[in-house]
Specification:
It contains ten helices and 17 strands. With 353 residues, the protein is α/β, with parallel strands linked by helices.
Amino acid sequence: MIEIKNLSLQLAQKEIFSDLNIEVRRGEKLGIVGGEGAGKSSLLDIISGRLIQTAGEVKVSGEVLTVTGNISADFSELRMAEMSAIDKLKRTLRGLNDNEIILLLDEPTKNLDASGVEWLINFLRERPNLTTIIVSSDRYFLKSTCPKIIRLGNIQAPEINLSCAKAEADSIALEVEELRKIHNGETIFKHVGFTIRQGQKVALVGRNEIGRSKLLKTFWNAWLNHDQIGGADHGKIKFAENLSLAYMPRVYSSATAKLELDKIQNSHANFLLLDAPTACLDLPMIEEFERALVNFPGTIIFSEDDRVFLQAVANRIVDITPNGTVDRISTYEDFLTNETVKQQISEKYNYVP
């Protein structure tokens, strides 16, 4: 059990939060959301004893285990670099005593794909006695695990305005034929071919995260260099002549993410390439960016794992497997539940030449 009374925190003469009162009983699952600087991770640090509060009282009955989205624990059986994010998480959570442990999860889904998120959801649901506090920007994960969610701070995200020149509706924006890329003898992607029309918002999904990122970079290189291959080993890329592109690469800090967002807003591009755009954004910024993309009149191709974001923005889903694509004009939820899609994905990932 956790009992927090009149908790306040001040860092470098800045008030982070004040008069915070929270009670978490054995087995309860509590979600915490808020903007950058609201004190979400600091609150977990206070509960675990790594940070001393400015005022107030914290009572914790049980042993605290903190797990973050960047697990770096050392396991003797395997080097961590060789393990996937979900395997690291499974090993970290293995053998917990649900009646004694208080589990603190800080952005636990950050590096997990859809199947990994589902595993963690089921792990928590199957443990009614495991007390858990979760800091996360993953709305689907929080909704699936936490009956109660509290928001720290009143930080409002700045408005994101994605204005652009209008292109001819439903005309072809991009044609891709038999694209293939191999790196160090490993196939990153192959048999990638599709036609993207103006106004489509195409989400690249699936387990092949490297393939998704490399494909977006390939498109960007083709546009920048005015060639038809973009650094791939085979294939053809053809953009329509009336396009203006902007590219947001995968970033690893919130400051860099905000700089990239500013670049996109100032580009007035009508075709966006976005690689994991929500990865380093807090929840208010994710919600604002989501709103801007839903209202964006241009074309988007983006790689993303945030399920709520995908459902809101995308109208076409493409799984970039190492052995070709599974492509469907639909919402993300329909894509996940379609039996034909499931069969095609299984065949593509399990294919052995």
